[in-house]
Structures are given as C-alpha cells and as structure tokens.
Amino acid sequence: MPRVPRRLASVTRALVGALVVASAGVANAAPEPPEGPTPAAPSSSAGADALAEARALFESAVQAQEAGRFREALERYERARKTVTTPTLLFNIAACHEHLGELLRAEALYEAALAEAEAKSADVIAHEARARLGTLRDEIPRVTVRLARGTVGAEATLDAAPVDATRLGDLRVDPGSHALHVRSGRHDRAFGLSFEIARRGVRVIDVDLGPERVAPAPRVVVRKNYVPAAVAAGGTVALGVAALVTGLAGLQAEERYDALNAAPKAETRAEREELRSEARSLYTANTVLTGAAVLALAATTYFFLRPPTRVVEPTRAGLALHF
Fold it and tell me: Residues with Cβ < 8 Å from 189, sequence gap 6 or more?
C-alpha cells in the first residue's frame, strides 16, 4: 500500500494553498469551524494566527506522513482539525489510521471524508474515499464466535469491551492481538483466548462453557414442632393448680361460714357475711380457672396430635418455605 496515494498529492498540497489564501483573506472570511461546539468568533488577527498555525501543522503533518511517521502526522492533523475541517484533512487522518492498523477507525473517517466531500463537491476526495473504503472493507479481519449448543446467558468481552451476544457470529476487528472472554452465570466454565489476526484474516472460535448448571431439587424435611404443645401443657398444669387452690380455699371459707352459722351470734354476723362472699368469689374463680384449664388441655391435645410441618429447604440463600 502506498504511503500517500499519488492522486492525493496534488489535493493535499492544494489544501496548504487554501490555508494560505484563507490566512491572507481572514479579514473578509472566517475560517471553517472545527468539529464539536462552535467557539466564539475570533478577531481578524486571532483568526489569521489560528489559520497560520493550522497551515504549519498541516504542512509538517504531510511531511511526516510522506516519511512514514504516521503517529506523528496523526497528532498534527488532529491539532489542525481543531481550527479547520475539510474533506482532505479527514481523508489524511483516515489514511494515517489505516497505516497504523486501526482499520475500523479509518473506515469511519473515510466515510466522514466522503460525506464531507460530497457536501462540498470535492470530487477528487470523494473518488479517493470511495476507492479506499472499497479496498479497506475487504481488509478488515472478521471473527466468528460459535457458542456450543445449549449455552444460556453468555456474556462476552473483546479486549475488555462488552460485546453483544447477538453479534458474536460476525465480529469485525483491527488486525493484531486480541483477547476474548466468555462466561455465563448458568454454566460452571469460563472461556478465555488471546489470539492474533492479520489483515483480511478470518477466524472461527468455538466456545464451550460446559453443560448448563442445574439447581438441585429442594429438600423437603418433615419436622415435628413440640414447642406449642409444651407451652399449652404448661398452661394446662398452671391453670389446673390455680383451679385446685381456689377450690380448696373456697371450701375452707364455706366450712368456717357453716361453723359460725350453726350457732349464729349478732357479733359474728359481719364475719359470716364476709366468709360467704369470699367463698362465692373463690368458687367463681375456680369455675373460670377450671374452664380455662380444660381449654388449655384441648389445645395441648391438638398441638400434640396435629400433623408435622413440611419444610422446603432452599438450595440457595433465602427463607425456608413452610407449608
């Protein structure tokens, strides 16, 4: 590949001449705006200085490009591009990227140069850009990544940049060294490969992440929970004891009342009334406590006799399911 196309040489020099004319006539015409945000309009002297600097950068960039110092030429072209943007400048930047092996970037800039040339009726540059694009697109290496059958949820990176899994079948890359990594949360294996590819190269990479990971079936455990039954039994005993105590106390109060009431005296009337009231209260409490003890006994029987609980133990961190 020639370092600078011969048919482009006259156009390249023409841009230098155009910069000279623009510098001389800057008082009557402002320079073409650079790409990106439009800066504030400079004064005539500032515009002339900027164009003069761009012209010098362009001339030195052309010399560096013709000498094969493409990285140096690229840096100077980009600096000149901050002042002016023309089809020829874009074409030369694309050519530098192409010679440096950055074919994808070169393709994008050739397309930009073609669009700019067509907009400005720069027929020579448009012709050259079409020609370079036709050749360059055949030189861009292609990589096909084939996932093994049954691969689920694959995530891929190429040179540490994420790649859409739907594009793995047709990847366009620059020539040189690359690193491909493929993994999936549904498979145990991960895939990694470093490879080299040349211009016009075609590479097919088969990726096998192993069988899909199958989650083990949840384990069902039958558990008998005796805590509620034990609590209910304890309540039954406590209520039963309380009912017994209040019943005995009521009997004692009733016996004392009966003893005093067998030979009633006027001075014991208040005591007899108090004993009768106490006996009634104790009997009432005994009835309530006895009923509660019966209910507690029924609850105890239910908790002891109810079916055991089935617990599904999760295969991963989480709450167990009770049913």
Answer: 208, 209, 210
